[in-house]
Amino acid sequence: MNDTTRSAPRSATTMCPLGLIAGMLGALEEAGVVYCHWKSNEAIEKSLVADNDLDLLVSRRDAPAFSAALHALGFRVARPSPDRMIPGMVDYLGLDAETGRMVHVQAHYQLVLGDDMTKNFRIPLEESYLESRVLAGPIPVPSHDFELLIFVLRMVVKHCPLDAQVSRKGRLTPSERRELAHLEAGADPAIVEALRAEHLPTVSAELFAECRRAIADDAGRLTRAVAGRHLVKALEPWARSSLRTDLGRKLWRRWRRRRTDGAPRSRRVLDSGGLLLAVVGGDGSGKSSAVAALGQTFSRHFPTHVVHMGKPVRSFRTRLVRAILRRLPGTRNDSRTSLPAWTDFETTGYPGFAFVVAHTLTARDRYRAYQRARRAAARGTVVVCDRFPLDSITLMDGPRCAHLPGLERRPLARRLAAAEAAYYRRIQPPDRLLVLRVDPTLAVARRSEQDEDFVRRRAEEVWSVDWEAQEAEVIDASQPHPAVLADVHSAAWRAL
């Protein structure tokens, strides 16, 4: 860390950062990167355990060293859609292997502020802001005086303009009020005024005082609107777009958000692109809970879709044909469509037309699910598949009709069996395969409520396959569940 960085007498010195964050802070110090956590420092504890984003202001000249340090720790760049990109800001995502938590680092090489929809203003005093930094526990932060100066400007341009008030964003949130009280308690008004006069001459002392009054809890709407308009005009020389253009963008993007009912959605896509990731394993391996955990972890930060390839969504055609079959004579109560894959049909005989139709329709639905998953991955989505049709696994998700006895005497059934096989041939291997491998005896013990023979056979097949030949990543699913989840998260992140 820079020798000029001072220590601040804060309770934050007792904080214990998440493992990945601690590693990042150490790497940045070793590389001599000049940076600070530049806002929301009242809740710095949450940022250091990945409950909040880490907003780091980084010296522009140290950008290469900063990027190299994060990439060495396994961070990935995630980019927003082109209309939401902000110059001088880069998002990094990293996975803490021990906890499975995602760490979001937002690197700012420029001080930008404004409405959340546009961030239209860049205040060119980054180096001075960094020079004021002090040490808060393991991480440098700006001085209270400088941070309060910028905080007041941020809150006024975010909450006070008339369009923000009409959109019901005219008041500080509870966390912002706590941050304001925290900064005011530690700042010296005389130093704040001196910083304003030196670095923000376009914001007069009278205007800054007006801004302080506007973000008070008892400020009226007119007071806030007037202060917002005056400050936006004062900052206009530092705007990326004209005020009229910025207003249009804000209104358009708020309207689009209302059309989606305000539902949260990830707007960032990993630089490395999308991925089709399959997780396979027998019963009792914890496969489904691992897939659910991956989907929950990833979907908060970038487009993620979970697909159950073993039980694909039934198409309208499938539902219609199955409904017709149930009404045909002789098939109303036919339960033979669910016969296990190890059934000896040479002994039991032809299982019936409904069996062939049902499994052909399932093959078609699996292929359609695979097709949608491939397209989504090509668009940048990370698709996590629960189960996947593989040549090496025949007892779960594969063709069932090609070798049935009696097909030679049944032309329609033979054609359907050929169609089933064709659907599976079109399903190509996933981009990355994770295999949860558990001893069959343990699998049976974990699934005591299920048929023992059913669980054992499926677990034995997964156990006996040579997965190294298929370049799959094998995970020991006999470990305690938290350890399995940690290994699954780490393997999936490496694949990305």
Explain this structure to me?
This protein is of the alpha/beta class and 496 residues long. It has 2 domains: 6-259, no CATH class; 272-495, 3-Layer(aba) Sandwich (Rossmann fold), CATH 3.40.50. 46% of the residues lie in helices and 14% in strands. It is built from 19 helices and 16 strands. The chain has a 6-stranded mixed β-sheet with strand order 2-3-6-5-4-11. The chain has a 5-stranded parallel β-sheet with strand order 13-14-12-15-16, with helices on both faces. Strands 1-9-10 form a 3-stranded mixed β-sheet, with no helix packed on it. Helix 5 crosses helix 8 (189-199), helix 9 runs antiparallel to helix 10 (221-234) and helix 13 runs antiparallel to helix 15. The chain is elongated and about 95 Å long. It starts with 5 loop residues before the first strand and ends with a helix. 38% of the residues are buried.
SSE blueprint:
Elements lengths: L5 E2 L11 H13 L3 E3 L6 H5 L5 E5 L4 H10 L3 E5 L8 E8 L4 E8 L3 E2 L7 E2 L3 H6 L2 E3 L2 E3 L2 H16 L2 H5 L7 H13 L2 H11 L5 H10 L6 H14 L8 H17 L8 E3 L4 E7 L5 H13 L4 E5 L7 H12 L17 H4 L4 H26 L3 E5 L24 H16 L5 E6 L2 H7 L5 H13 L8 E4 L4 H15 L1
Parallel strand pairs: 1-9, 3-6, 12-14, 12-15, 13-14, 15-16
Antiparallel strand pairs: 2-3, 4-5, 4-11, 5-6, 7-8, 9-10
